[in-house]
Amino acid sequence: MLLSSSRCLVLLLVWTSADAGRILGRIKERVRNLSLQAAGGPLRRVKEGRIHQPLDHFDRLDLGTFPQRFFVNEAYWRRPDGPVFLYIGGEGPISESSVLAGHHVDMAEEHGALLLALEHRFYGDSINPDGLKTENLSGLSSQQALADSAAFHQHISQSFGLSRRNTWIVFGGSYAGALSAWFRGKFPHLVYGAVASSAPVRAKLDFSAYSSVVGSSLANEAVGGSEKCLVAVREAFAAAGSLMGGNASRVAADFGCCQVPKNLDDQIELMQNLADIVMGTVQYNEEGVLMSINELCGVMTNTSGATLEETRPYDRLVKLAQIYRSSSEEACLDISHEKTVAALMDTAVHSGRRAERQWTYQTCTEFGFYQTCEDASCPFSRSVTLSSQTELCLLLFGISQHSLPERVAFTNAYYGGDHPHTHRVLYVNGGVDPWRALSVVEEGEEARTVLIEDAAHCADMAGRRAADRRSLREARQEIEEHVVGWLKMAALEITV
User: Catalytic one among 104, 111, 120, 457?
Assistant: First the structure.
């Protein structure tokens, strides 16, 4: 599948979620950039603003502030009592497209909503020049981000003269999806309902289930996978790992690496990057990034017209890496672990476009989300261990690896894990998406869910499109029915 900007708007939010290797991060960066091209309508509709937020909402003696960016689109708003749709930003910059395109914008046009988008603190342009220094990152947390959203609610209400007649609905995807659910849970008097798409509400230190779901998705015939494909991927990585042990220079040459691995860290970096190509394909299946599962499995299982050597799974994995490099216009795969660490230690803000250092900090202090491959169900290299990933916490921020379980446990105790007490929150997940393993997928007394069996990460958040799968169209209709129901209930409550 060729990259399609019309499909990618929604995925600007999925800087998302913790990913161990560089390639998956680059795939998400390409998605974010393409989203800027996906926005519909004239930009004159959109107003950009700043609100000066406290660096610490919970310490009244700390007078420090930072500028938080937001966007407003009033084009569809039925003044003065129309609803307010707030799009929450996640671990990356937001753009004008956040209030110009997507399913939430389609619904805003139909129901006369004021559209807002709020950038997450310490990401994008919402950061002070010294914000990435380790001593200042203590102000970066989901709790502070929710307090930012509450202060933003007050700011907008005052600026636009809003009242209780203006029903607020909040939207978010991936980490921002979790924030939208938590915002409704912690501030139910401010927002009436929330749509949480692909929301990993349960923090997890060792997220081995990610790779397990990738494996099951590769074998899912409904999306073009097969058991033969999964077996080929397993055999390819096993072969690459075996060859690495005796001839690392050959492996580096086969996969077009920029360097020959100098040590075990470089070898792990290479194996993680190869896994990222497969993981990124699954996570963003049919959403316009790189290729689809069907196309990947076509490469991994195609033996027609090939030479004997080219029928081996290892050589097909080499072909897959070539396809990635060609589509991304990368001359070679950079596998230097030393360079990765140096980039993460860089505290220059670089015009607000960075996200890796900040998100790594949040994984170390709140969420974990480390996509390991020590479980037998993982189809990739066993060298990607929890220890190899969490050692960055100590190296970058002085955070002990031994403290991580307690930090993750606190997050789950604070929010409720995958049983959060969140009335009027709709949890939407795709059956192909590895992140569904940390979301709410079963209906409960308080939880309402939509599971799109053949959809990927945050697929529901893109705008309507003729080429969409039927399941996706039906899911969007179900989401809208929930939103309409909330708006009607809120109106009845106001009149009583």
Answer: 457
Q: Compute CA distances 330 → 2, 249, 481, whole Å.
A: 16, 19, 44
The active-site residue, picked from 141, 142, 149, 174, is 174
pLDDT (tens digit, 9 = 90+) per residue, 114-135? 999 999 999 999 999 999 999 9
The yes-or-no answer on residue 350 being catalytic is no
Q: Which domain holds residue 119?
A: 42-203+419-495
362, 384, 406: which is the final residue of a domain? 406
Structure tokens that stand for 463 in this block: 């705008």
Of 19, 148, 418, 433, which residue is the catalytic one? 433
Does residue 440 lie within any of the structural domains? yes
Residues 210 and 283 in one domain: yes
Is residue 491 helix, strand or coil?
helix
Rg (CA), the chain: 22
User: Within a 10 A sphere around the Cβ of 367, how many other Cβ atoms?
Assistant: 26
**Distance between CA atoms of 190 and 149, rounded to whole angstroms?**
10
pTM of the model: 0.92
Residue 457 annotated as catalytic: yes
Q: Looking at the domain assignment, is residue 29 inside a domain?
A: no
Indicate the DSSP class of residue 21.
S
Each residue's pLDDT tens digit, 332-386:
999 999 999 999 999 999 755 679 999 999 999 999 999 999 988 999 999 999 9
Distances in Å between the alpha carbon of 50 and those of 117, 155, 156, 328? 12, 10, 11, 34
Q: Are 218 and 278 in contact (CB under 8 A)?
A: yes
Mean pLDDT is lowest, of 69-83, 183-197, 255-269, 292-306, for 292-306
Nearest to 284 by CA among 22, 26, 20: 26
Model confidence pLDDT, tens digit, residues 278-314: 999 999 998 877 799 999 999 999 876 566 566 799 9
